[in-house]
């Protein structure tokens, strides 16, 4: 099939783009503007990216078919060091990079070009468009493509920063920022825009404690300065060669790794010597604050790359310290090896310093004993440390051993004690990353002091509150993110927005030594897509894109004649751009991966609120989760997936699109699973075979099953539209490719053969497929005789005239009877298997005849009374909240009351219940039912309990008028065919019906009794 699909993919993509159905111009239709977060240009994309991108195209296609004028622009994010790093690796002939590029189809001629960063950008711009987005059939408006290194884009970003400056949201101050030793400052965040490793690292602030020892200071790094009152000894690693560094008038002893980091943060640090860790053991050092001499002892858990490689010991509250002291006291050989005084070592006792809720005076000892930890290398020590630190910080109170801080909460004492030591000169501050971070260029990232860093003030209270209020009315998915975004905005604070170094990007308008960094130039950009068409087509150039130009087209400021004169942009062009902006903006939906939830999306929202008028603020955010490989998230830097063109050629684009749409909800990670993709490819083949069978039908007689199929498709239309209001693409895919397929096959199994019915159902079904599997949909659409594109046909609409609820419930009833019987047959098969295990000679029991007994009339009368008391409930579409909301929108409602009104309708419907006493009384008031006495009363009670558990829809189904006996009797031969044995249908009222097991009396409305005669 893949060869055939490759052919039709190329065929229809060419036709779409030749017909320019992907291009969007303003007109009288309602607009819908949708984007995905443009990808960074750091190499080839992978199959994981295509998940979210496919969602965007599918949503855009659906909206286009529902009467919307859809703009779906794309671009690339070249800002940063990604392209530069790749070019450098190519230039120096890095073998892994060359292999990676060649495996993705790069030629030797391409490699020569890729030694230049801007050529990298140009090359991958073309790859992304041609090999990925066009290859997947995206209906993107290619005229609006932009990259963040285009001069026009840079002019737009400079305008954006001038507006932020006018708003008072730009400022400078010293800053400790992550920086590559080669490339300069980088962003460390989950998006890993600048990184190849370590995007989840956090900046850790260490308090440096200075211990006087002879003519130098041993310097320990701690994250718990409040524990200094509990210091009993000092740890060094005997295997580490420490360095002596001069800073101001002091000599510090620290690890060489910490020196390399620290000199980036502290001016004037000078290496003056080294000292082996072994030589420090046995010395005495004066601890800060307590001013008590404590011994220096050996500990190999002191890692030179963590902190300073030196550790102060607080065994009362640090599990590592407690276990190490405990082991050393019992290790006479180690004491002798390092020449330690045994009595001194064994006299060391933990000093209680914090009263922590749930613990005694020595939390570390208590928890170690509880966890059964006996060795210093036990990995559970880290768990114990985190638990004690967390509990101590949140519930701890400093005890009487803590001098002036006694009685103070730990969370308060921590900062006060740190500040006291800083003021006295007994401490300093050092910043480090919580895990290893590697730049895109392959070199390590450390924390570096930037004395004059520029920031965007995202803590601006006015903008923050405006953004939070706006978010309440946005369509944000998933719901968890909608609920959490207010909190994200609350803690979203100042962000460094520019960098120095070797970067691609936009020059900062107030000091061109700076380059605007990758998050800060990717927030307001959706509105630039509207303008980029004019730049792309050469109607305007970057010299004309002045502050005055952007003020007019984006903010409506200025006189058009004056702006035209000053910018040299003609009046018609200015007018058209301004009208385009007013028509297309705000952005309706911005889709991005979950790494954007705490970084990109907050900045995206707040820049809109800070700069643009309120009616241009975004309407929707859609967050999608990852496609993972065997070792976790697939990424460009880590690899883990085959090239996108290879996957498309192997499985077919539509099978891949269906895989992305259906394999899981968008808000869950999924594993890249080729076996699963094969099943979607097979499903498309099965659908095509079913379509061929339907096309061959040529009957003219209309049967009940014809009304059922059209009504069923009508119901699916309604369900799909409900799904797509919430962008529930998986729900839509399930209806179209699974449930609708089942409907078609059931129709033919039930003897459906009407040509017009099949044609109408196919017309609906193929249009349903167009958003997710557009190539195959177009091919089938053409085979049905249509001359236009299904991609721009009207999406099927719910038609009340096609609805036949009775037909649907009747067939659903028949299916449920078959399912019930199959479950019983399964039990029989299991019993046969069990009997065979016990007695291999035992003959299996097989069904001879299946007897079905439909409900007696008196039970139908009880149900009729229930229906009457509940107000003759039926299943109006408007009882479903999503349908209510949709109908209100159709009538023009747009305010926040829509959803509340919809769900209020559902609540009112759910408030109707049958009370057992009143219902039983009504039943017993009927003379005929009263004669049955307790039997009637018992059934009335059971029915009331059952109905009170059901929704309106379920009750409507249960009470729909249906002559069950006649319906099943007519289907006897079909039932026999489906079940593979003789089937007999009787009414429970038939006294002559064979009923050896007295099953008939158990029958109830819509629940016939079943007896299987085994032979």
UniProtKB/TrEMBL annotation:
GO terms for molecular function: aminoacyl-tRNA deacylase activity; ATP binding; leucine-tRNA ligase activity. The keyword Calcium does not apply. Residues 986-1007 are annotated as: Disordered. The keyword Cell cycle does not apply. InterPro entries: aa-tRNA-synth_I_CS, aa-tRNA-synth_Ia, Leu-tRNA-synth_Ia_arc/euk, M/V/L/I-tRNA-synth_anticd-bd, Rossmann-like_a/b/a_fold, tRNAsynth_Ia_anticodon-bd, Val/Leu/Ile-tRNA-synth_edit. Residues 706-833 form the Methionyl/Valyl/Leucyl/Isoleucyl-tRNA synthetase anticodon-binding domain. One of its GO terms (biological process) is leucyl-tRNA aminoacylation. Its EC number is 6.1.1.4. SUPFAM superfamilies: Anticodon-binding domain of a subclass of class I aminoacyl-tRNA synthetases, Nucleotidylyl transferase, ValRS/IleRS/LeuRS editing domain. It holds the Pfam family tRNA-synt_1. Keywords: Aminoacyl-tRNA synthetase, ATP-binding, Ligase, Nucleotide-binding, Protein biosynthesis. Gene3D superfamilies: Class I aminoacyl-tRNA synthetases (RS), HUPs, Isoleucyl-tRNA Synthetase, Domain 1, Valyl/Leucyl/Isoleucyl-tRNA synthetase, editing domain. Residues 11-672 form the Aminoacyl-tRNA synthetase class Ia domain. PANTHER family: LEUCINE--TRNA LIGASE, CYTOPLASMIC (PTHR45794:SF1), LEUCYL-TRNA SYNTHETASE (PTHR45794). Belongs to the class-I aminoacyl-tRNA synthetase family. This is Leucine--tRNA ligase. It comes from Candidatus Methanomassiliicoccus intestinalis.
């Amino acid at each position: 099939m893949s060869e055939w699909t490759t052919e039709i993919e190329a065929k229809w993509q060419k036709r779409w783009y030749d017909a320019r159905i992907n291009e969007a111009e303003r007109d009288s239709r309602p607009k819908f503007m949708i984007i995905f977060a443009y990808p960074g240009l750091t190499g080839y994309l992978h199959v994981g990216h295509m998940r979210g991108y496919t969602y965007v195209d599918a949503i855009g296609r659906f909206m286009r078919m529902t009467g919307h004028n859809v703009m779906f622009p794309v671009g690339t994010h070249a800002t940063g060091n990604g392209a530069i790093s790749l070019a450098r690796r190519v230039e120096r002939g890095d073998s892994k990079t060359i292999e990676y590029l060649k495996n993705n189809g790069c030629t030797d001629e391409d490699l020569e070009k890729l030694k230049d960063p801007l050529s990298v950008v140009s090359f991958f711009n073309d790859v992304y468009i041609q090999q990925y987005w066009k290859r997947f059939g995206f209906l993107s408006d290619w005229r609006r493509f932009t990259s963040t290194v285009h001069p026009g884009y840079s002019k737009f970003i400079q305008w954006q920063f001038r507006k932020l400056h006018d708003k008072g949201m730009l400022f400078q101050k010293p800053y400790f920022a992550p920086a590559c030793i080669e490339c300069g400052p980088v962003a460390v965040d989950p998006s890993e825009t600048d990184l190849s490793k370590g995007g989840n690292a956090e900046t850790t602030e260490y308090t440096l404690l200075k211990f006087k020892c002879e003519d130098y200071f041993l310097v320990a790094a701690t994250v718990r300065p409040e524990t200094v009152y509990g210091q009993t000894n000092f740890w060094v690693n005997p295997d580490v060669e420490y360095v002596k560094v001069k800073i101001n008038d002091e000599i510090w002893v620290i690890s060489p790794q910490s020196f390399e980091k620290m000199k980036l943060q502290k001016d004037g640090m000078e290496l003056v010597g080294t000292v082996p860790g072994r030589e420090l053991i046995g010395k005495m050092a004066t601890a800060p604050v307590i001013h008590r001499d404590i011994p220096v002892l050996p500990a190999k858990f002191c890692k030179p790359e963590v902190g300073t490689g030196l550790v102060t010991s607080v065994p009362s509250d640090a599990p590592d310290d407690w276990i190490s002291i405990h082991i050393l006291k019992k290790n006479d050989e180690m004491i002798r090896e390092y020449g330690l005084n045994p009595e001194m070592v064994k006299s060391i006792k933990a000093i209680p310093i914090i009263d922590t809720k749930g613990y005694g005076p020595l939390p570390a000892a208590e928890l170690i004993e509880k966890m059964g930890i006996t060795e210093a290398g036990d990995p559970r020590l880290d768990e114990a440390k985190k638990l004690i630190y967390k509990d101590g910080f949140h519930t701890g109170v400093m005890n009487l051993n803590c001098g002036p801080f006694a009685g103070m909460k730990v969370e308060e004492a921590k900062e006060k004690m740190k500040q006291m030591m800083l003021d006295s000169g007994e401490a300093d501050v050092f910043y480090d990353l919580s895990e290893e971070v590697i730049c895109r260029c392959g070199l390590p990232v450390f924390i570096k002091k930037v004395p004059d860093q520029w920031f965007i003030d995202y803590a601006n209270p006015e903008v923050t509150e405006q953004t939070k209020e706006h978010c309440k009315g946005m369509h944000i998915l998933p719901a968890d993110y909608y609920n959490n975004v207010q909190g994200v905005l609350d803690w979203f604070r100042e962000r460094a927005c520019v960098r120095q170094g070797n970067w691609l990007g936009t020059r900062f308008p107030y000091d061109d030594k700076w380059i605007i960094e990758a998050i800060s130039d990717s927030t307001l950009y959706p509105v630039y897509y509207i303008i980029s068409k004019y730049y792309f087509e050469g109607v305007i150039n970057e010299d004309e894109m002045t502050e005055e130009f952007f003020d007019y087209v984006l903010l409506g400021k200025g006189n058009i004649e004056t702006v035209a004169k000053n910018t040299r942009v003609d009046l018609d062009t200015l007018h058209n751009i301004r009208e385009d902006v007013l028509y297309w903006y705000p952005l309706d939906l911005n889709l991005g991966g979950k790494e954007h939830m705490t970084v990109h999306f907050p900045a995206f929202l707040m820049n809109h609120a800070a700069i643009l008028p309120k009616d241009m603020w975004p309407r929707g955010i859609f967050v999608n989760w990852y496609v993972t490989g065997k070792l976790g998230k697939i990424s460009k830097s880590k690899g883990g997936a085959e090239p996108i063109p290879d996957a498309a050629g192997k499985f077919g684009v539509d099978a891949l699109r269906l895989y992305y749409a259906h394999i899981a909800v968008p808000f869950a990670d999924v594993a890249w699973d080729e076996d699963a993709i094969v099943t979607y490819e097979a499903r498309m083949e099965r659908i095509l075979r079913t379509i061929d069978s339907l096309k061959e039908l040529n009957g003219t007689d209309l049967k009940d099953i014809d009304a059922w199929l059209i009504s069923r498709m009508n119901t699916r239309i309604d369900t799909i539209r409900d799904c797509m209001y919430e962008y529930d693409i998986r729900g839509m895919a399930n209806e179209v490719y699974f449930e609708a397929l089942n409907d078609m096959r059931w129709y033919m199994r039930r003897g459906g053969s009407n040509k017009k019915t099949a044609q109408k159902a196919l017309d609906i079904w193929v249009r349903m497929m167009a958003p997710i599997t557009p190539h195959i949909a177009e091919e089938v659409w053409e085979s049905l005789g249509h001359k236009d594109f299904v991609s721009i046909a009207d999406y099927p609409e719910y038609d009340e005239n096609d609805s036949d609820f009775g037909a649907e419930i009747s067939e659903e009833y028949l299916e449920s009877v078959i399912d019930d019987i199959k479950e019983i047959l399964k039990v029989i098969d299991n019993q046969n298997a069990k009997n065979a295990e016990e007695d291999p000679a035992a003959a299996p029991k097989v069904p001879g005849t299946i007897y079905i007994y439909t409900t007696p009339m008196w039970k139908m009368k009880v149900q009729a009374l229930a229906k009457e008391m509940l107000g003759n409930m039926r299943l109006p579409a408007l009882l479903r909240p999503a349908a209510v909301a949709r109908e209100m929108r159709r009538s023009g409602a747009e305010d926040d009351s829509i959803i509340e009104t919809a769900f209020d309708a559902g609540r009112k419907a759910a408030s109707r219940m049958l009370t057992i006493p009143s219902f039983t009384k009504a039943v017993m008031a009927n003379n005929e039912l009263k004669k049955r006495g307790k039997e009637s009363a018992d059934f009335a009670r059971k029915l009331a309990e059952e109905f009170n558990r059901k929704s309106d829809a379920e009750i409507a189904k249960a009470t729909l008028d249906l002559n069950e006996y006649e319906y099943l009797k007519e289907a006897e031969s079909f039932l026999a065919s489906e079940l593979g044995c003789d089937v007999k249908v009787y009414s429970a009222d038939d006294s002559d019906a064979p009923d050896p097991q007295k099953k008939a009396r158990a029958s109830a409305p819509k629940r016939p009794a079943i007896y299987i005669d085994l032979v």
